[in-house]
Amino acid sequence: MPSTSLNERGNFQFSEAHENIAAEAVARAAEDLSQFPQTLQTTTVPSAQETSIMVADDKLPERFQWVLNAPEPPGLWCKLQNGITETIFPLKNKFQHLREHQVSKSLGNLFPILSWGKAYNIKMFRKDLLAGLTLASLCIPQSIGYATLAKLDPQYGLYTSVVPPFLYAILGTSREIAIGPVAVVSLLLSAMIQKIEDPVANPVAYTGLVITVTLFAGIFQAAFGAFRLGFLVDLLSHAAIVGFMAGAAIMIGLQQLKGLLGTTKFTNKTDIISVLAAVWRSVHDSWNPLNFILGCSFLSFILTTRFLGRKKQKLFWLSTIAPLTSVVLSTLIVFLTRADKHGVKIVKHIKSGLNPISVHQLQLNGPHTAEAAKIGLIVAVVALAEAIAVGRSFASVRGYHLDGNKEMVAMGVMNVAGSLTSCYVATGSFSRTAVNFSAGCETVVSNIVMAVTVIISLELFTRLLFYTPIAILASIILSALPGLIDLNEAYNIWKVDKLDFLACIGAFLGVLFASVEIGLLVAVGVSFVTVILSSIQPGTETLGRIPGTDIFVDVNQYPMAVEIPGILVTRLKCALLCFANSNCIKERILQLATGKQEVGDKGNAKGKTQLIVFDMSNLMNIDTTGLASLKELHNSLASEGIEFAVTNPRWQVIHKLRLANFVNSIGRRVFLTVGEAIDVCITAKMA
Amino acid sequence: MPSTSLNERGNFQFSEAHENIAAEAVARAAEDLSQFPQTLQTTTVPSAQETSIMVADDKLPERFQWVLNAPEPPGLWCKLQNGITETIFPLKNKFQHLREHQVSKSLGNLFPILSWGKAYNIKMFRKDLLAGLTLASLCIPQSIGYATLAKLDPQYGLYTSVVPPFLYAILGTSREIAIGPVAVVSLLLSAMIQKIEDPVANPVAYTGLVITVTLFAGIFQAAFGAFRLGFLVDLLSHAAIVGFMAGAAIMIGLQQLKGLLGTTKFTNKTDIISVLAAVWRSVHDSWNPLNFILGCSFLSFILTTRFLGRKKQKLFWLSTIAPLTSVVLSTLIVFLTRADKHGVKIVKHIKSGLNPISVHQLQLNGPHTAEAAKIGLIVAVVALAEAIAVGRSFASVRGYHLDGNKEMVAMGVMNVAGSLTSCYVATGSFSRTAVNFSAGCETVVSNIVMAVTVIISLELFTRLLFYTPIAILASIILSALPGLIDLNEAYNIWKVDKLDFLACIGAFLGVLFASVEIGLLVAVGVSFVTVILSSIQPGTETLGRIPGTDIFVDVNQYPMAVEIPGILVTRLKCALLCFANSNCIKERILQLATGKQEVGDKGNAKGKTQLIVFDMSNLMNIDTTGLASLKELHNSLASEGIEFAVTNPRWQVIHKLRLANFVNSIGRRVFLTVGEAIDVCITAKMA
Question: Which residue ranges traverse the bilayer (chains A, B) (predicted)?
Answer without folding.
Answer: 129-147, 167-192, 204-229, 235-254, 315-336, 375-395, 407-427, 433-457, 464-485, 505-533
